[in-house]
Amino acid sequence: MQIDKYQKAKYIFVIGIGGSDLASKAVWNAMTLHKTNVEKKLFFLESPDIREYEEITNFVKNEIINLEEVVFITISKSGQTAETLETFHKTFDILSEKFGSPISERVIIISSLGSTLWQLAEKNKFEKIPWPEGIGGRFSSFTTPHTTVLNVAGLDADAFVAGGKEMDIKCSEETEDNPAKHLAKNIYDNYEKGFDILDFFIFNSELEDLGKWCRQLIAESLGKENEEGERVGLTPTVSIGPVDMHSMLQLNLGGPKNRFTIFVKSFFEIKESINDRAYEEVSEAYKEAGLPFIKYEIEKINEREIGSFMAYMMNVTLELAKLFKVDPYGQPAVENYKKSLHNL
């Protein structure tokens, strides 16, 4: 793909759902959510409702001037996800009404060879990028479905991938120093004691979508029948500190002891802020309450550090799958739902 063709794009529409967009969405929001000097605007359209389509229509009509300002990326491994296909057609119609047939020159399709979406791209001569063979959606973070979005958005996709590779090397060691093996064993040992909720308690609001990416990774990879026919899995949740300390903390500290927590915090800010104090105090309160947790601290939120964290969690998930005795790659229940929706 010729990235230069899209360098002037200011408005990037990304159509996808679940593993097709959560990784790139997490990186984008982590890097831009609280910044005021962001030159580009990304629209992650997963399954918009009528109100959202009206907002998109008004934005396209009133805010976008030139065709060169637009890139329209649609991502689906199967190429037949019902929500994605509907969102593609409706958004394409909105853009076509503004720009006519030339909008086809600004469309990128990422899908499996021969899929419904791939055939649509061939028919309309859209730019096509093949989905990486043998890679499932939730394990695709470092591949073209997401690096394409990051590159077009002007982020450092190379640093993101490099951070992931560095962590993969650390997690490939067959020793007790392997951080993924260590955390997976910690989580699983506590799971056997009744701690079946895995909470990502995040103290940087721009990382909320990173927590949601973790939620899908854990839920879909581990929630299934194991080799012995038992239904197993962790229930992943996402909390944002200190906000959720004022809504969930009573339950967490005073309710059932069934929660393993991963506290996530970047300290690239003014020390001794209220957020820093809340982070330290809540982790101390968890310790006093006998609740298991670990801290994952990031020096600075950037593409490399986010890539490192994602690779860490993927490796932890694979190690947990071994302990749970499940295949981390399949998702039979989800596929049944997709077939049912597709047949409506």
Please characterize this protein's 3D structure.
The protein is built from 12 helices and 11 strands. By secondary structure, the protein is of the alpha/beta class. The strands form 3 sheets. The protein has a 5-stranded parallel beta sheet with strand order 2-1-3-4-5, with helices on both faces. The protein has a 4-stranded parallel beta sheet with strand order 9-6-10-11, with helices on both faces. A two-stranded antiparallel sheet has the order 7-8. Helix 1 packs parallel to helix 5. The two termini are 36 Å apart.
The CATH class name of the largest domain reads Alpha Beta
String of helices and strands: EHEHEHEHEHHHEHEEEHEHEHH
CATH topology label of the largest domain: Rossmann fold
Helical proportion? 40-55%
**What's the total count of β strands?**
11
Largest sheet: 5 strands, parallel
Q: How far is the N terminus from the C terminus?
A: 36 Å
Outline? globular
Low-confidence stretches are 334-344
